[in-house]
Amino acid sequence: MARLLTLLAVAAVASAECTREGLLAAANSYVAAITAGKLDGLKLSSTNFTYMENNKKADLAKSGVLAQPLKIDLTRSTADVISCASYTLIVSTSGTKPYILATQLRHPGDDTTTITLVDTIAATTGSLFFNAAKTLGHLKAQNWGPIPEAERPSRELLKKYGDAYLDMWTDKDAAGSIQWGADCERVEGSQFTKPCGVQLPRGGSTKPNGMRRYVIDETVGSVDILCSFDSIGNYPDSHEFRLEGGKVKYVHTVTV
Ligand SMILES: *[C@@H]1O[C@H](CO)[C@@H](O)[C@H](O)[C@H]1NC(C)=O
To answer: Where in the numbering of this chain does the DUF8021 domain appear (predicted)?
Structure first.
């Protein structure tokens, strides 16, 4: 009997898993809202909704990000069915204000039709190494397509490497714990570094990078971490990684 109940409980949990399709549909609704400069069409929870912009609670309706329609030059999204969250990158180079938005959406349990959190790092003119057109050029050349199933990195490895990367400023051994692909590249704001496993921080700061929020998508070998980049001074930040063949292929950062 106990065993049967356990099986039933497992089945209940399994059916409550949110789907990739649902997550990506919600992410698309956010892209549509940004494109239109309007909240309509975003299914925000009426009982538990929070908007975070650059690590601070804010009013989504009054956000400068939605103050005007944005022409979107590049967007891509990843989906984390375990955390029921998505990550969307948006690059807009040509409006009155250029933007690079790194946004995570979160949903309650299995219900991807309701959004409980829009959590965005919104970089614009004046942000660290900000040049949206230059960033666009670097990102357009990248391939974030699906990783063949047999070669996908595990969720654990993605989280481990993402965390190790953010720990490099406080832990002198962190950089050495990561395997770097030979043709790995870093796009930090608009700054481009290849290969990326050179000139890495080896400790030195006493302040760990905090407030880490994860979206992990094994299908494209990616982890995005929104955080407060405290090691060098309290910057709202997004660090996204892609692993190929178990090694770091891309690092993309958006820092305000
Ligand atoms: C409200 O939403 C947040 C973000 O998704 C979640 O972490 C939290 O548990 C929710 N709170 C309640 C009471 O459901």
So the answer is: 151-255
